[in-house]
Specification:
alpha/beta; single chain; 220 residues; 5-stranded mixed beta sheet; 11 helices
């Protein structure tokens, strides 16, 4: 993983996003929740021809805003790059983001959401009915649990509503992108707060890394 000194701040990724668009022939327009993972993959592979801009991760609380935000970002940057790729899955847009990407002629990550592509879309699909009562956390969400789960649901003010929100879940599945005891403990604490069983799966970057590798190594 990229050193902590060079990692973007989670709070900024949540509300402002991230931009490193100074060079490269390819631009990745991504969710802020994926910034650290993408930067690590790019750095390890030496993909200096890929630039990155991230939209605020908090858009996931309002998925109806994601499609327009992506369209605006493509319009802003399309003249400056040979290729643009969208590092979002469907992410609750009900197919609207896919339709917009097809219209714009840009490719996006396959899958319904990041939980699926981190685990591997086929592996996630194969779990099927076994996962219907699972609540998922990624590394980013383990760090930003209050901002994305607890506070938007009002549980910081009304903790008595916990069972109403999570009563149909049986377990919290922490999909670990990096092997961090600290993040594992944070995720376990989140499960305890939600009253759920805890399961940790080390997924690494899954199909995210495979997809970026495909894009990075296409003939230019």
């Amino acid at each position: 993983m990229t050193s902590n000194e060079s990692l973007p701040d989670d709070a900024a990724l949540t509300t402002k996003g991230y931009e490193d668009t100074g060079k490269g022939s390819i631009l990745l327009i991504a969710c802020g929740a994926l910034a650290r993972e993408i930067l690590d993959i790019k750095t390890r592979n030496g993909w200096d021809h890929m630039a990155l801009t991230c939209l605020p991760a908090i858009l996931h609380v309002h998925p109806e805003r994601i499609t327009q935000a992506v369209e605006d970002a493509v319009a802003k940057h399309q003249r400056n790059y040979d290729k643009i790729y969208i590092v979002y899955a469907d992410c609750g847009t009900g197919g609207l983001l896919q339709a917009a990407c097809e219209k714009l002629g840009v490719e996006m990550v396959k899958g319904p959401h990041c939980y699926s592509f981190f685990e591997g879309n086929q592996a996630f699909q194969d779990r099927g009915e076994d996962e219907t009562t699972a609540f998922y956390l990624t590394d980013f969400l383990a760090r930003q649990f209050d901002a994305f789960v607890w506070k938007p649901l009002g549980l910081d003010r009304h903790p008595e509503l916990r069972d109403m929100y999570f009563g149909n879940y049986t377990k919290l599945v922490y999909q670990a992108q990096i092997d961090s005891p600290e993040l594992t403990e944070r995720a376990r604490e989140c499960a305890d707060r939600m009253g759920l069983e805890f399961e940790r799966r080390f997924t690494g970057y899954g199909d995210l890394e495979n997809t970026l590798s495909d894009w990075a190594n296409r003939p230019r």
